[in-house]
Structure prediction request, 464 residues.
Amino acid sequence: MVINQNHTLLDSVPRKTLSKEVADRIIQLLVSGNLKRGDKLPPEMELIKMLSVSRPVLREAMSSLESLGIIHRKTRDGTYFSEKIGSQPYFNMLSLVMDDLPTIIEARMALELGLIALAAEKITQNELEHLYQTIEAISKHPGNYSEIDKEFHRIIAFSVHNPVLDSMIDSLLVAFDQMSKNIEVRERNVAVEHHTAIYEALERRSPPEAFSKMYEHLDYVRKKILKESRKG
Amino acid sequence: MVINQNHTLLDSVPRKTLSKEVADRIIQLLVSGNLKRGDKLPPEMELIKMLSVSRPVLREAMSSLESLGIIHRKTRDGTYFSEKIGSQPYFNMLSLVMDDLPTIIEARMALELGLIALAAEKITQNELEHLYQTIEAISKHPGNYSEIDKEFHRIIAFSVHNPVLDSMIDSLLVAFDQMSKNIEVRERNVAVEHHTAIYEALERRSPPEAFSKMYEHLDYVRKKILKESRKG
DNA sequence: ATTTTATAATTGTAAGACAATTAGGATAAA
DNA sequence: TTTATCCTAATTGTCTTACAATTATAAAAT
Prediction:
C-alpha cells in the first residue's frame, strides 16, 4: 500500500512533474516487495530504460528520495534501498523552525509524553537496568552530566522500538540539543529525583503514573529553559 | 541557526555531493532571513550564477527541497519559499511502513497522548465548543460517523497550534485512515462515552486526567482494530 | 477602456559527453 | 597455489547545450 501524496490541501492542483511521478514509481518498486531493505537498485542507465525518462529526470527523482532517507547512493557503487527509516527529512524540516525554541520544546515534550506511556507497556528489564544506571551515574558522577541526562531520555524513547517514533524523536532531541546547548539549567538533585520517580513508575508498568512523573519533569524543565532563554 | 545534516551515525562518512551542498546553501538563504515565507526565490538561471553550479545540480537540489516541503515550484512562474511546514516528508516516510499497522497505530497513539496533555493546557473555549458539537453530532446523527470521529481527534491535535506536531500527526492520521478504512469497529455508545470523558477532562484543564481518558480510549480502539485486522 | 496578440521569462525535459573512483578481474610475482 | 599489483569496466557525479511548454507581461489593435 502506498500513500498518494496528492491529498494535501496546500497544493490543491498538484504540479505533476515527471520526476515526481518517477519518484512515486520507484517508491512503488521498493514497497511492492520486489526489493528488500538494503538491496541494491538497478543502475541509473537501466532505470532510465525501464521508465523511459531522461537521466536528469531520474536523478532529480533519486535526489528527492535520498533527501527523504528512502534510498542512499554510494558513489561509483550503486543506489541502495535504505535499511531503516532515517531522520534526515525531519532535520531539514526542523531547520525551518530552529529560531522557535518554544515550538521545539513543546514538540519534544508532546512526543516524550506519548512515548513514556508506551514505554511503560513495553520496556524490557534490560532497558530498565540501563535506565537505573544512568540515574546512579548522574548522582555519583561529578561535573557535567548533560550527556547522561540525554541518555536517560533516549533509552525511554527507543525502548518503544517504533521506527516512526524513533525518527521523530531523534530529530527533535538533536534540534533541542542544538538550541539549548548554551542554556545551563542543570540541577543535579532535581534531575535525580525526577528521573527516579519516572523510573519507578516504569518499573510498576503504569502508563498514567509514568506520564504524570514525566509531565512534572518536562514541565519543570520547560519553564526553566524558557525563562533562561528570555534572559539571554 | 541551521542544523547540519551530517551528524547521523548511518552514513558516518557522508557523501558530499554538490547538489546536497547546494540544497544546504539554499536552506541557509531561506533561514537566514533574507527571504520570508511565501517569497519568490530567484529564477534558476540566477541561482546558477550565484552558486556557480550547473543547472542539473541546482535542479536536483531544488527537487530535494521540494520533496521536503521546504519550497514549491510553479511551472513557468517561479519557486516559492513554502508558507508553512507541510507533511510531505512524513507521508513519504510512512509509505515505507504502510504494511505495518501496529507501528502506525502505536505512533499515532503516542502522538495523540502527548498532544492531549498540551491541549489541556492550551485549548480555547471556541475549540472546546467545537469539540462538544462533534460529540453531539455522533450521538444524534444516524449512520456512519467516522468522519465526525476523526474531526474530534483533529480538533484536539490542532488546538495545540504547533507546526511541527501538526505535520507529524497529520501524516499519521492520514496513514491510519488509509490502512484502517476497511476495518469497521464503530461502537457509537462507546465513542460518545469516551469522547465525553476526554472533553470533560479538557474542560477541567487537567493534563493527567485528559491523558488517562485518552489513553483508555486509544487503548480500547487499538485492541479492537488489531484484533479485527488479524481476523481479516 | 477592453480585448487580443505577441514576446519574453521561466520551469520542464532531453541528449551527449567527460570526470572520477571504486570493484572486480586479469596478470604477474613469490 | 597464493598473494600482490595493475588494469579495465561499471557507476555515479557534473557540465553543456538545446528545445519544449506555458504563463505573465507588455504591446497593439479594436
